[in-house]
Amino acid sequence: MTSGGALAYDWPADVPSPDPVRGWIDGYERRPGVFDEFIDANGFTRGAWPRFLQRFGQIGEREVMARFLSGERHIHDAGISYRVYGDQREHAWPLGPLPLIIDGRDWAELAAGIIQRAGLMERIVADIYGPGRLISEGLLPAPAVAGSPEFLRPVHGIAPPGGRHLQLYAADVGRGPDGRWRVLADRTQAPSGLGFALENRMVLARAYPDLISDLHVERLPGFFQSLREGITAACERSDPRICLLTSGPYSSTYVEQAALARYLGFLLVEGDDLVVQDGLLHVRTVAGLKRADALWRRIDADYLDPMELRSESRLGVPGILDVLRRGGVVIGNMPGSGVLESGALSPYLPRIAERLLGESLRLSDPPTWWCGDPESLAHVRANLDRMTLRPAATPVRGPERDAILGPHALDAARERAIAALDDRPFDWVGQETGPLSTMPAWFEGRLVPRPFVMRVFATATSDGWRVMPTAFCRTAEQEGVDPTVMRAGIRSADVWVVSDQPVETPPLLNTITPKIRRIAGHLPSRAADNLFWLGRYLERAEGVIRLVQTHLGRLAGTLASDTGSDVGTPTSLRIRALLEEWGSVDEPDLPTAALAREALCDREQHGSALSHVLSARRSASTLRERLPVEAWRALTELQDLLDFDDSRVPSEAQLFGRAERALGHLSALSGLSHENMNHSAGWRFFDMGRRIERGVNTSSFALRFAGDQAGAEDLGVMLALCDSQIAYGARYLTGVSLPAVRDMALLDPFNPRSVAFQVEEIVRHLDTLPALRADGVPEPHRRAALRLAGTFATADATDLNAGQLAGFEDELEDLATLIAGRYFPGNADALRPEKLTGLA
């Protein structure tokens, strides 16, 4: 240690230390009595850190920051976020720029301990819900099990389909002062963080691809392939339908669930998407009920079946426990496995390991005493000053998870702890936790030690347990903050398991030829509903933007200033009236710039372009696993463009430019959906939503700007709103004509902006979607579409009148209602066709 308190560093002779590195590590102080991942007690850097920092230094601080800013931009654009319990806001994912570096040999020891512990947990939970020998032999107190809220009596005696209770096991780990890994908590209920670990790696792989290659960082695809194969092998059918059950977009970890579903090819479903019929579990799809073979649940088990567990639950599936009893569905992890997370089990694990495995635990827990045992309670009372008092069955939701007493607690907390022990001692455990080990984190251009917790995952395979060669790591930005739960002041870090030799790249070639198919799976009805409305909201936003842009473009150069009344001509009045009718503005006689800003960017106006974009984003948030990342990025950029905070009203020219760029983003979204989305049922519902809304908007425009008394100015606006000025000018060399404008905007089947074109596209989509009638008679929604298509195919522009124009708008809205009634959940008509469909 130097005189100033900073540690002196000795680097390996064959690894140069560039000047930037010295500046980064200067003043790095290892905490007394705490294991640090970067330096040892003698001031030597550990493992691969010199190699990493030497390469980091070669990149240079400016380039490092530029690369990571690019990664942060990706996080923002891709919508990688999380929610804090009780907070409905999305928070950008807080990923730190430095990974945690762990040597491969060190990791191998940790992985061996995780594999042993996962196998032990599987045997314990099988005994708890089976023969109960551990309790009868006195190795486990019955109250510690039966008193846990995670012990589910209806599950007792159910043999898990596929033979396993646990498909995924996770453990929160840290190091003790001696450097040995310790298990701080077992995660068996529905372990979260796997998707965030995957996202962390994807972001840093974009930022530092050369470092990952040079340091021989272990790859992740092999683990995820094993996870998928393990679930598949547990199913009866060779080509099973695997679903990931989520509580929905307001789940704190919904983003990672969607990432996992997309990466693994699983069907992301909510409870309403599932139904029990004939003793089996099925997904409600646009093609009827389709069997679900496996369910990877990400909701707490007590919410899984409202018929036998929590009756108020709206997240689960009525009757699913009965399906389990019949062996009709594989569920990972089995309901009731959360009982293993109880801290009350911790004191008994060493003896249980000796009994069941014939060996000692490789990974120890912090010294723990369950207060339901009289001797342990006496010990905890006598040593409260150095104890952390925690709930015995730590809930996975809500603030109750926090300890009520720590070694440095105030007198009030001590009194509360004593009262809790007097009232219900069996609800608590006392632990000698000690300080968390530290890792280097980046802070204001230098490295500083920060406490961290790693969540390590293992998946069950036919060959045993396999550990993911990375972890979900969380670091505290300040001392004394528990990094176990993601919240303000906590960051995440990627974990790099490094080797001295190049790592093996898992083979991509599958030696088993799968059944060839040309559909992207069956589309859940809920997903179809959200895709349909995503298309409608985007088209509504475009309609508002085109109205505003047309109004601003017409007035360009004619107004002296942005003040005063510039209501303008009758055509301008009609534009303003339509914006008011659509709920885009409150006062149609505002100055033009103020009117345009309100219609484009006002969150308070339910019909503003921004409000429609926000609605589109909410719909898209339930479809993360189906939308290309580029589409989410374009949607984010569109929101950023419209959601600006400026106390000054921008000029008309500035607003015109903003509207023009917004239309560009919408065009990009349209192109991405057409070119990057698989043209299966999901894309068809998205496109139908756009087509219906575009047809409604164009009919509405025609009623106002192509009516019987329309003048040249009105017709010019009509062509602008339909983006058909160039096509009209190329076809007609004379000025605007009412019949010609009507024909191009409404009836021309070759104009992609005409109503007739939208209707023909809708008919084509409906022809491709599954028909559930065996008699060949068109269903009501298809008859309505064919009837409307016939009307446009035979109409004559010279004969159209205002009543017919209004009728087009109403018929398109009626068609949308029929489509919703047939395909989407929550509609009586949507349930009837399922009885006519074979189950597959």
Automatic annotation (TrEMBL):
It holds the Pfam family CP_ATPgrasp_2. It comes from Methylobacterium brachythecii. Residues 523-824 form the DUF403 domain. PANTHER family: BLR2978 PROTEIN, BLR5612 PROTEIN. This is Putative circularly permuted ATP-grasp superfamily protein/putative alpha-E superfamily protein. InterPro entries: ATP-dep_Glu-Cys_Ligase-2, CP_ATPgrasp_2, DUF403. Residues 99-476 form the Circularly permuted ATP-grasp type domain.
